[in-house]
Design brief:
The chain is mainly alpha-helical and 398 residues long. It has a single domain, classed as MFS general substrate transporter like domains (Growth Hormone, Chain: A), CATH 1.20.1250.20. Helices cover 80% and strands 0% of the residues.
Amino acid sequence: MFKPFRQRLPRNVWILGFVSLFADINSKMVQSILPLFLVSVLGANLMTVGLIEGIAESTASVVKIGSGALSDYWQRRKALAVVGYGLSTLVTALFAVASSPSWVLVARFADRLGKGIRVAPRNALVADTATPETRGAAYGLRQTLDTIGSFLGPLFAAALLSGSGQNFRLVFWLAFLPGVVAVLLLVIGIREPSKPSTARQNPLKWRMLKNLDRRYWLLLAVALLFNMGNSSDAFLLLRAQQIGVATALIPLSLVVINLIYGCSAYPVGVLSDRIGRVGLLLGGFVVFACVYLGFAFAQSPWQVWLLFACYGLYLGLSQGVLLALVADQVPATLRGTAFGLINLVTGVALLPASLLAGWLWQQVSPQATFLLGGGCAVAAALLLGLGYRQGNAQNHSR
């Protein structure tokens, strides 16, 4: 049954969206050229790229559980978000002066540490602000604005790279500016929602974690399985270059991804409020599997561009919907912890996934890297579908 969409989205949701927009211009200007900088300027090999990306993303995911739980304990989210966005902005300069892969590792570690600090409190802040009836739309809108930044960042990087004779360091320096704007918006624009004063409790104690729904734990298992094959997007960029996409055009691949992602995230979020979220998330996993199979066997640049567009659709179908699903299953007092825990589990998978992807690429073939990713996505879709079907059957039998 369709649910009517009655309410406007709150001011905080819009502000957080624009914070994400500017922060993503900053981060995507860096990330869209970083694999190429590592390989072509600093002489890193594919295993090194996989190691750096795996450690960086795992760091972000592991830190999220601590920051999320801390935001639940303090019953405040904004301060942690400011610290996280501020740290990621400050370390942008390290990329510009990096003289070896070890410098890049330090910079990526600090950048992702900042992300780890901010993400769980920010996601909980969205849930604190939006009503249950508009939760999917709220996450979808934030993802859309976030994705506009992800679209503009690589576009700016490509233009600067082309106009400066592939001066990677100039791009890194200029990426600092939108990061500053994001931090200022957060500090000035966000108002912490008022909450009833309650006794502080450690949300990581088992007696508290028992309040999390069985379906939340299912989502945790699905996220772990899916991300065992979801290696760093750096491998998508390197595969595109290998198939024949020109180096100067590689950053535009992220433009294509984020254009489709941005156009689909908000409509999908609204749709999830009306028809449910599980089917849309399943669809996202299936699209991901098809994309990775496509990258395994693609032979010409036009196929690569089509696959990048489909990858954007996968993101639109899954990212905001998964966040809304998590928020649906947990009590308000455990939102930060729940978001942090699911990201911790994801991080446990990301490092071995990226290392395995690099090893498979070098020791077996690039195709093997993408076949692994597609297989894990199919397995995750089956677990999600069967788990929710079994849960519904149990509920009807009671």
